[in-house]
């Protein structure tokens, strides 16, 4: 079990420059995700909250919970580098569903945002949070 945890938490890109670049990448991506999509979850326009598409016909509360978690909580976990590889998974799911299903027949201009988020989050999933993260710090405590 400890070995699996170490594999999930470990992420070192070799040089300080690479680790610093990944830190900036994940922080800027997470800020943008929260600013553009997370803040919409709190706004009310015309007396209505944001409509969250539900292409799989999940219970509305569950669908809303996953979308809200992905756009509000996950960005803060990514910024901190806390459980990063696990944390990005629900957001990858939400953005990939947005790209392939919700906007599947829309123009490339409309599909661009979920595509870029999905690719960026897949990169973070593959690389982890890097040396400048709570994941790396916690790994050294184990």
What key phrases describe this protein's structure?
2 strands; two-stranded antiparallel sheet; mainly alpha; 6 helices; elongated; 142 residues
Enumerate the spans where pLDDT stays under 50 for 5 or more consecutive residues.
none
Number of strands: 2
Count of helical stretches: 6
Fraction in helix = 55-70%
| Average pLDDT, all residues | 89
**What Rg is obtained from the alpha carbons, in whole angstroms?**
16 Å
What general outline do the C-alpha atoms trace?
A: elongated
How much of the sequence lies in strands comes to under 5%
Order of helices and strands: HHEEHHHH
Instruction: Kindly report how far apart the N and C termini lie.
Output: 12 Å
Spatially, the strands of the biggest sheet line up as 1-2
Mind explaining what this structure looks like?
This protein has 6 helices and 2 strands; from the N terminus they run ααββαααα. It has helices at 2-9, 16-38, 60-80, 84-102, 108-127, 134-141; strands spanning 44-45, 48-49. Strands 1-2 form a two-stranded antiparallel ribbon. The radius of gyration is 16 Å and the shape is elongated. The N and C termini lie close together (12 Å).
Summary, kept brief:
This protein is mainly α and 142 residues long. The chain has helices at 2-9, 16-38, 60-80, 84-102, 108-127, 134-141, and strands spanning 44-45, 48-49.
